[in-house]
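in:
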């Protein structure tokens, strides 16, 4: 639980086992909430199933059926039932591009903020936004995720370097020491993590190295995996 949000992670080898464990957890939590005079919003309570069953267990909260969803938001991270993380990246990309429109109002090609200040805003605001929750979703990043991240980042790099759209992507990265979000070591600076290679822009180095000379040198450090890959082994519910 965190603040006014709570989550149950339930795992069992069978459908009936998942349902029984879920009911037991809900009953225990419901009694605790009632004892402490806390009210649960059932309208906002959802559950997501991670597994291969076509017809997973149906979960109820005191005889009220809980809605099953394909994506679930928890602490700013969007979890999808396939653990592809594309919905999460799309949402973060949408928010980043909204900030891009505001950025354009104070940083034109020949006027406005200096290159140093543009880079500072990008590194401390936009990059942090895109990398939010990376400890969960960046462990097994795919080519599709890389392309989406690069598309978003390229707009900001053009704005910062005042370059034309025809300029090569890695050339935009190098003057800024702000490398591609999908380059080697990106979003995964923990020693135990497996680095992934940017096949599209091999000249880019790691984002982690680029962050080391900014205001927050450890802001993107990823220390360990959340273990989401193991969640696929059995049916799990998060509400």
């Amino acid at each position: 639980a965190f603040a006014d949000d709570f989550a149950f992670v339930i795992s069992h080898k069978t459908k009936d086992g998942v349902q029984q464990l879920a009911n037991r957890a809900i009953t225990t939590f419901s009694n605790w909430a009632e004892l402490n005079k806390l009210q649960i919003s059932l309208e906002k309570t959802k559950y997501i199933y991670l597994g291969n069953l076509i017809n997973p267990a149906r979960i109820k909260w005191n005889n009220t059926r809980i809605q099953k969803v394909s994506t679930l938001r928890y602490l700013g991270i969007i979890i999808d039932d396939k653990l592809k993380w594309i919905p999460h990246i799309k949402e973060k990309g949408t928010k980043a591009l909204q900030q891009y429109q505001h950025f354009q109002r104070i940083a034109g090609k020949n006027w406005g903020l200096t290159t140093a200040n543009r880079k500072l805003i990008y590194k401390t605001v936009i990059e942090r936004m895109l990398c939010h929750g990376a400890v969960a979703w960046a462990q097994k990043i795919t080519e599709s995720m890389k392309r989406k991240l690069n598309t978003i980042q390229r707009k900001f790099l053009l704005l910062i370097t005042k370059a034309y759209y025809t300029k090569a992507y890695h050339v935009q990265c190098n003057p800024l020491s702000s490398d591609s979000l999908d380059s080697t070591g990106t979003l995964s600076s923990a020693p135990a993590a497996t680095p992934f290679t940017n096949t599209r822009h091999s000249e880019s180095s790691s984002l982690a190295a680029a962050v080391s000379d900014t205001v927050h040198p450890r802001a993107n450090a990823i220390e360990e995996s959340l273990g989401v890959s193991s969640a696929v082994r059995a049916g799990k519910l998060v509400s």
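note: The longest strand covers residues 46-50.
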